Amino acid sequence: MKPQHHLDVATLMSCAAGSQPEALAFIVASHLAVCPQCRADLGQASLIGSSLFEDLPSSGLGDARLVDVAWLSSRRDRSDDVHQTESGRADPSFVLAEQRGVHWMERDPGVNEADIQLSPSARGHLRLVRLAPSVPIPQRLRDVAELTFVVSGGLINTDQKLQAGDVLDGVVAHQAALTADATHGCVCLMGKY
Predict the structure, then answer these.
(1) Do 71 and 101 lie in a common domain?
(2) In CATH, what number is assigned to the domain containing residue 139?
(3) pLDDT for position 102
(4) Which listed residue, of 28, 64, 125, 143, carries a Cα 20 to 30 Å from 149's Cα?
(5) C-alpha–C-alpha distance, residues 89 and 161, integer Å
(6) Is pLDDT of 27 > 60?
(7) For residue 36, pLDDT beyond 80
(8) pTM for the complete prediction?
(9) pLDDT tens digits for 98-128?
(10) Residue closest to 186 by CA, chosen among 139, 156, 138, 153
(11) Would residue 38 be called left, alpha or beta, if left means φ above 0 and alpha means ψ between -120 and 50 degrees?
(12) Contact present, 107 and 141 (Cβ < 8 Å)
């Protein structure tokens, strides 16, 4: 099943420019790995950006982290569908290898979290959140998440249903309360700059 919820154009442009903070770049890369539509849109954003700079004098890029658009484009040759197991897990296997070795901490009833270590100079936060079936995302997390990527299970509210591979771009607090899937719960990555 292909992702149904995608990255915002501004997020894709920021990615193409290589200007995303590390926490958000991790989530964007996770979604791009399973979403052919956003990979194609990123390619377009890169073309737009490069055409704007064609006439400018050349300068070194230094340590800028740029997305390898050629690599992303090559992934189009892979299956355009997100492979899902019977338990509703997307199969971006690099996304924390099914959370093996993750040090989960229970923060609220039915809510476990694991902070993901970023590089020492990185700003922002990246955390893996595991919600038991039918448990809503706590308000304290809804107020700060800028990007949310569903790794397994799903999130549901009155307006939408997000499944493995989907991304919610924007502060979750602006959305109607999201609740974990009643059968499988949800594991998601939540990033904040």
Answers:
(1) no
(2) 2.60.120.10
(3) 81
(4) 64
(5) 15
(6) yes
(7) yes
(8) 0.74
(9) 556 788 999 999 999 999 889 999 888 999 9
(10) 153
(11) alpha
(12) no
